[in-house]
# Entry
Amino acid sequence: MPEKPEVLTVARSLEKRLIGKTITDCQVYWNNIISEPSVEKFIKGIVGEKIEDITTRGKWLVFFLTTKVLLIHLRMEGKFFFRKTGDERGKHEHVVFILDEKEEFRFHDVRKFGKMHLLDKEFAYQVLPLSALGYEYNDNNLTRDYLYQKLHGKTVPIKTALLDQSIIAGIGNIYDDEILFLSHINPKRKSNKITKSECDNVISNTKIVMEKAIKLGGTTIKSFTSSEGVHGLFQNELLVHGKENEKCIECGCKIEKIQIGGRGTYFCPHCQK
# Structure
């Protein structure tokens, strides 16, 4: 699933093609992708809206329109394609936005897990889903005391806690493994056993990992690519994720893979005791 760096890469690639365009029509071919409001209200509300800006919040793409905000979550395999009006619709192109009556912006999702919300611009950050998100990795409010307090209310493994979007928004499975490796924290450690100094390390390494991944355009793993096939390069920088049985770059021990909360988890048993 795309995480913050991948979603931000998508947003930046879409800005060049979408800013200033008006949505003159919309067609929905798989209703479950539209979470809020109803499909009929979604189409009625978005037609005539001009795309003014594109940003992200956690793993959500945030499109600022004239009076609305369009939220899109890519989930496992969501991606976008631009097509000429009238081009045959692909099997997995489930939502089509017509731009200025001459170009189509299509949401492609093989698994149909993607989600869209259309909200009033004034309240978009005050209601779900954005209101439930924690701080971004680079928010000044993401402090040692904040993280310590959040973690010490939980008994789940630290690996699971860092995937909790209500604590830090945007971290997923790949970057979780990398952050814990750099922080020398075993992913099985209980969240309420993490010290304040370790919280400092987690915050510092979260910034290091996320900023490097963003600079390199994210990580291309399995089926994920950004719009129009833009590929990330951070997979070349991964230290533990996907490195099962390879030597740890710090100590030479073999990287192990275990399951935590149903998620494949990679770590060094020596460096992350």
User: Anything to note?
Assistant: Helices lie at 4-18, 39-46, 144-151, 158-161, 173-182, 196-215. The radius of gyration is 20 Å. The chain has a mean pLDDT of 93. The longest helix spans residues 196-215.
